[in-house]
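Sample intake sheet
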Amino acid sequence: MTENTTTTNAAAPFLLTPEQAADYLQITTRTLRNLVTRGLIPQTKLTGKLVRYRRPDLDASLGRLTTGLQQGGSWK
């Protein structure tokens, strides 16, 4: 029998690295940086260049982005 290793929302850590956040949203790190630059996804700077993303912020941002697109909005 194989073990199920799929990560669920409940199992994901609260603070995510840029790579983890991009993987969580199923986008590239470049797209993640672009969304942050445009103010669509918040980031937390811990020290200097050390950046993390809060999972609840990602969930809320994803909800806003997908809701806007479903209502005829755009990413701009």
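Comment: The mean pLDDT is 82. The helical segments are 18-25, 29-37, 55-70.
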